[in-house]
Amino acid sequence: MSTTSPRSKPLAADLGARGFVFVGPTTAHALTEAIGRDDAHLVGWHRLGASGLFDAASGEPPLPA
């Protein structure tokens, strides 16, 4: 399981630029998982897509309309 994601690195950099301290990519990744932005459940696991925000087949959020 990954402790960071491609989305967490720029988020951590942005938070650091805004004055947040001790926020790195791992903390940002945990935040995005906690708020439901990233779904770290493994493909094929029964919890993947349980939030209703993600496509159960790919594990990715739907594209904006």
From TrEMBL:
<keyword id="KW-0326">Glycosidase</keyword>
<dbReference type="InterPro" id="IPR005019">
    <property type="entry name" value="Adenine_glyco"/>
</dbReference>
<keyword id="KW-0378">Hydrolase</keyword>
<dbReference type="GO" id="GO:0008725">
    <property type="term" value="F:DNA-3-methyladenine glycosylase activity"/>
</dbReference>
<dbReference type="InterPro" id="IPR011257">
    <property type="entry name" value="DNA_glycosylase"/>
</dbReference>
<feature type="binding site">
    <location>
        <position position="41"/>
    </location>
    <ligand>
        <name>Zn(2+)</name>
    </ligand>
</feature>
<dbReference type="Pfam" id="PF03352">
    <property type="entry name" value="Adenine_glyco"/>
</dbReference>
<dbReference type="GO" id="GO:0006284">
    <property type="term" value="P:base-excision repair"/>
</dbReference>
<keyword id="KW-0479">Metal-binding</keyword>
<dbReference type="GO" id="GO:0046872">
    <property type="term" value="F:metal ion binding"/>
</dbReference>
<protein>
    <submittedName>
        <fullName>DNA-3-methyladenine glycosylase</fullName>
        <ecNumber>3.2.2.20</ecNumber>
    </submittedName>
</protein>
<keyword id="KW-0862">Zinc</keyword>
